[in-house]
Amino acid sequence: MCESTNAETQGFAPSEKYVIDELKSIIEMCPGRVYVATFASNLQRIDEIIQIAVKNKRKICLLGRSMNTNVGISIDIGFLNVSKSQFIEARDVNKYPDEEVLILCTGSQGEELAALNQLANGKNV
To answer: Is residue 107 domain-resident?
Structure first.
């Protein structure tokens, strides 16, 4: 089991394919900068998001210590098949047009110290 959010809730959740298809559609149609928050441990979803970004000619900025660590290790061991040249540092985001940037960060559950919350409070990119 990768995630257990709402595991105690009866019924069915949409498949990961549905989630990825929706993300793909949103990213392809977005005219500006894209922010995606997800669990840093869900490397399959992260891989899909990275591949969508690459296909849409977007540089990827990773925010969050666990996101940077997990993606870095996954690239080093060959789990993620992406060139490190696809990534940019947070300090360089504003050097690219908004339509060429995707920010992939932690904080999808509203954690106080996670990257997404920092962004929302103007403390990052």
So the answer is: yes
Asked if 47 and 77 count as a contact pair (C-beta separation under 8 A), the reply is no
Please answer whether residues 64 and 114 qualify as being in contact, where contact means their C-beta atoms are separated by less than 8 angstroms: yes
Q: How many CB atoms lie within 10 A of CB 42?
A: 17
CATH number for 106: 3.40.50.10710
How confident is the model over 84-106, as pLDDT tens digits? 999 999 999 999 999 999 999 98
Task: Provide the 3-class DSSP secondary structure of residue 90.
Answer: helix
Query: Is residue 8 classed as helix, strand or coil in its secondary structure?
Result: coil
Instruction: Report the C-alpha gap between 43 and 37 in whole angstroms.
Output: 13
For residues 119 and 105, the answer to whether their CB atoms sit within 8 Å is yes
